[in-house]
Specification:
The protein has six helices and eight strands; from the N terminus they run βαβαβαβαβαββαβ. By secondary structure, it is an alpha/beta fold. The protein has an eight-stranded mixed β-sheet, with helices on one face. α1 runs parallel beside α6 and α5 crosses α6. The longest helix has 24 residues. The protein is globular. It starts with a strand and ends with a strand. The structure holds 5-O-phosphono-beta-D-ribofuranosylamine.
Length: 197
């Protein structure tokens, strides 16, 4: 049975594009929805150009009411009956009551070698710490931010003269390889982690 995948974004959606473009041929999953909390997210037009249904659930009217926001998010998702949710640069923290029913079916990409550098500004923090390598992690989403079982990691070297921007670009190239590779295995029911390169 083909798995139905919803992808949640907030911005440019380059990871979303790499996931969508991977789900062809004998891939066990297909994209059914790209949803953003931000109507200006550049990824929405990229999804539309690929013929994927899109939705926007703006978090701003729900200031101070995370569960109200998540109720509408849940309704928007339910219309498309996804089997798997991929968070791909989705910049909202989800509460335990949203996450719990999706646990085991929701995955995220984070631009660090978890458990190092949970949260924001990962590349600047890795550079400040003098790390020799950096990378990205795909993991199952649990109620704790940027935790949950690791499904894959990709490493890159930190180079002399790197800025947060140059390092982010090098890591992003690996995100675009790692996330589709993990999604394919996850959709096949294989949760054993992949380590690249
Ligand atoms: C990626 O670096 C992702 O790891 C992080 O946010 C960025 C999103 O980029 N969570 P994009 O929207 O996929 O281009």
């Amino acid at each position: 049975m083909t798995k139905r995948v919803a992808i949640l974004i907030s911005g440019g959606g380059s990871n979303m594009v790499s996931l969508v473009d991977s789900m062809t041929g004998d891939h066990p999953a297909r994209p059914v929805l790209v949803l953003s909390n931000n109507e200006d997210a550049g990824g929405l037009a990229k999804a539309e150009a690929r013929g994927i249904p899109t939705a926007v659930v703006d978090h701003r009217p729900f200031r101070g009411d995370r569960e109200g926001f998540e109720g509408i998010l849940q309704e928007a998702l339910a219309c498309h009956t996804p089997d798997i949710i991929c968070l791909a640069g989705f910049m909202r923290v989800l509460t335990e009551s949203f996450v719990r029913p999706w646990q085991g079916r929701m995955i995220n990409i984070h631009p660090s070698l978890l458990p190092k550098y949970r949260g924001l500004n990962t590349h600047a923090r890795a550079l400040e710490a003098g790390e020799a390598e950096a990378g990205c992690t795909v993991h199952e989403v649990t109620a704790e931010l940027d935790e949950g079982p690791t499904l894959g990691q990709a490493r890159v070297p930190v180079l002399a003269g790197d800025t947060p921007g140059t390092l982010a670009a090098r890591v992003l190239d690996q995100e675009h390889i790692l996330y589709p590779a993990v999604l394919r295995r996850f959709a096949e029911g294989d949760r054993s982690p992949i380590y690249l390169p």
